[in-house]
Description:
This protein is of the alpha+beta class. Helices cover 48% and strands 18% of the residues.
Amino acid sequence: MNNAIAGFSKLSKEEKINWIANHYFSTPSEAIALLKNYWNSDEKIQKLHDEFIENTISNFYIPLGVAPNFLINGKYSTIPMAIEESSVVAAASKAAKFWSTRGGFKTTVISTEKIGQVHFIYKGDKSKLALFFGQLKPNLFEVTEHLTKNMQKRGGGILDIILKDKTDLLSNYHQLHATFETVDSMGANFINSCLEQFAQTLKEEAQTFEMFTEEEKNIQIVMSILSNYVPDCIVRAEVSCPIEDLAEKHIEHPNEFASKFIQAVQIAEVEPYRAVTHNKGIMNGIDAVVLATGNDFRAVEAGIHAYASKNGQYSSLSHAKIENGIFSFWLEIPLALGTVGGLTSLHPLVKLSLEMLEKPSAKELMQIVAVAGLAQNFAALRSLTTTGIQEGHMKMHLNNILNQFEANDEERHLIKKHFKHHVVSHSAVVNFIENLRK
Length: 438
């Protein structure tokens, strides 16, 4: 197709699907049938999903699984995880069970500040700008009272606003850097509304500040937006036990295991190529819970990976040590999450997930999400330093291969029996299926 289409968003859902099917598929009827096959049979639920985004044509399913036996601060939780990658839920569940008999996970919310900025260009005397901001700051709190009133009742609001000089980075660049407490909401809309009011007031008040020249009054607002980097919204999750208590089926020599485990973490602390994959494993657990609870996993990803680079080099998010015979493994990560607003009050499965977690506050959800990331990382490192990552991963992947080749029940039984004692690889499974079918 070489021509653009005008007014696509104004077409009905049926018209959009028909246009796509007829322009891009050799068998339009099959494409239409497939898209409709994934519609929800409940028209009300489907309408709800249709209105989450624009130009909806169907639903894209991702499995929702659960990982039980998470002992967190003395209380058991079953954690919902929405993810398509095989072995993630199984690995989290195994780690949860492992640590449930060794004291469980301990978590602490260290801080909950979130950040927003008004980015602007000011050409003039910086000392005058500082004096102007001194007068302006109280007004910024006053003009946003209508926005912050309800948030303040819940214990949140604007914490502080400071003027930052960024002219060493970009000519004439300054910012209003504001910190917020948004309690149980993620707070994006609240923060952005406050920032836009700050920007409007900044520009208006500059016009009447007597010390400014005409050029200095002409403050140019570039943009007003929250930051997904929240280095002061931090949660810590950790596990620890005496080294000898690490012993289990695959850990016959706990001292050797602990030493090797710590070396693996240290490599991720100093080697960025390893750190990226190491942290990706952590995010397998984090993203799955963030998605299941209706939060923004893209924002969480961006903020956490920025935090992993806070010292000038990308590094491991988790850390480990042995001290006085005690093995400890922990992480500290920034997490800006919400349990009210957005999808949390709209998506039926999000509401179900939050109820399964016993309706946590935002702080409690931060702790649950951090634990899922730590559990996933522990499971991956335990496999890497003992049996190797592929053994467990490929056995979980076996079902995907069997589904790809539409294996029947008899074939599945024979294939799974064979690969209990043989290495699973895609080519090995394909060869076995082909030999079965000859």
